[in-house]
Amino acid sequence: MLSVMFIKSEIKELKPFQKLSIPEACEITETVETQYQRTKKKVDANFFILNEEDQEVYAGTLSIGSGHARHVVDHIKKKLSSLKMDDIQEARKRSFLEQLEKKLPDHLKTTDGSFSLEEEKEDNVQTTQTPVLSTRNRRLIYGGGVLSLLILSATCFSTVATSQDRAETIQDLQKQVKLEQKITETYERALLGDSEGTLKQLSSIGEQSLTKEQKNVYMSLLVDQKNYKEAVKLQGDHPEVVESMISKKGDVNELKEFQQTFPSPNGAFDLAYHEQRWEDMMSQSGVDMTDKRYEMKAYGYLKQDKVKEAKEAAAHLQNQDLNQKIETYEKTKKEVEETKKQVEEEENKDPKDENKIKSLTEQQKKQEEALKNL
Fold first, then answer.
1. Is 230 exposed, middle or buried (0-12, 13-18, 19+ CB in 10 A)?
2. Which of 267, 317, 265 is nearest to 294 (CA)?
3. pLDDT of res. 148
4. What does residue 306 show for φ and ψ, rounded to 5 degrees?
């Protein structure tokens, strides 16, 4: 169940570090928004959206009294509507928004000019000045969190809870919040294409203040700039971490360049896979065989028509999709052989049925093409 926690606010109704349900948070923020608009007063309130495990899935700053949003959920919807992304990321975003919308009482659902989910979709099509993620920047997005696409500075709520247990002062926590805001703003700049500015700002923050996920995004920016040495240094001089990230992206040229600078058996294996040099891939020794590489190996064996070896590689995994692919390969190969046999039989008949031979030949071609594309 999603909840809201305000972490910085001058508004007495929004007590710092108190968890609120989505309806409670929206009721309160709508009330104070109306009050502050009447008095022409504006106050910023920082907040987190937490999941059922008290982990942060969204961080934002609500401008109370500005008139930009009716309540906290309305603010989130309007904020996220300005970002366009690929289908998978868009699905995550809309799933998150739908979860929030379901929690709203009817009288708080989008009215008075607020976006509805349907209207938001239309606006994304019609707006011409909305920031668009470039293909390169989309590669920075990792699918770990519901909203990793926007808030890459997420810190588990347990960090705050621990701080409270240690009786640290609110002032100390506010310093942490300010740092988190700076990091969040930095990653938003990265998503919108300002790589150089982002790199400069990230270097000023300090590696010790970055989470593992943030370091991964920083690393991706460095790789885009072909600054492989700094990327490896950022990961504690472990080139295999950077190589693995490049391999997952599937950029063969980047992988080649990195392998030249930091040669390794892992890199040679991954590069051979992406270049479809199956024999070279299989002959590579000293490779750290992760689940992903066992999957790659099984696929390589299939491309060489070595079903037995593919099954042996797949046996290291619990991958239903891979097992299904191997089964489909076996089935399709059997169908090809049966159709080929039928063609030969028809060819040997006298008189020949040319139409049947043509039909069977076309069927065989389709089956062979399906086998090739598995």
1. middle
2. 317
3. 37
4. -110, 80
User: What is the rounded distance in angstroms from the CA atom of residue 345 to the CA atom of residue 148?
Assistant: 59
Q: Is the dihedral of CA 245, 251, 252, 255 positive or negative?
A: negative
Contact 57, 146 (CB under 8 A): yes
Residue 212: exposure state from Cβ atoms within 10 A (0-12, 13-18, ≥19): exposed
Instruction: Describe the strand order of the beta sheet including 43-50 as a list of residue ranges.
Output: 19-21, 3-8, 43-50, 56-64
Which of helix, strand or coil describes residue 86? coil
* Token pair 């076996």 in the structure block, residue: 330
Give me Rg for the CA atoms of the chain. Answer: 27
According to the model, what pLDDT value does residue 204 have? 60
What is the spatial distance between Cα 339 and Cα 259, in angstroms, rounded to a whole number? 45
d(CA 271, CA 265): 10
Residue type, 233: K
Alpha-carbon span 17 to 4, nearest angstrom? 9
Sequence-separated (6 or more) residues with CB below 8 Å from residue 221: 140, 190, 195, 198, 199, 202
State the number of CA atoms in the 13 A half-sphere of 27 facing the CB. Answer: 8
SS3 44: strand
Burial 269-285 (b: 16+ CB within 10 A, else e): bbbbbbeeebeebbebe
Q: Which two tokens stand for residue 78?
A: 């309007």
CA distance 317 to 314: 5
* Structure-block tokens of residue 22: 């989505």
Reported as a single tens digit per residue, the pLDDT across 187-234 is 444 444 445 655 666 666 666 666 666 677 678 778 888 889 988 988
| Contact (Cβ atoms closer than 8 angstroms) between residue 117 and residue 100 | no
Q: What digits encode the pLDDT tens for the residues 343-372?
A: 999 999 988 899 999 999 999 999 999 888
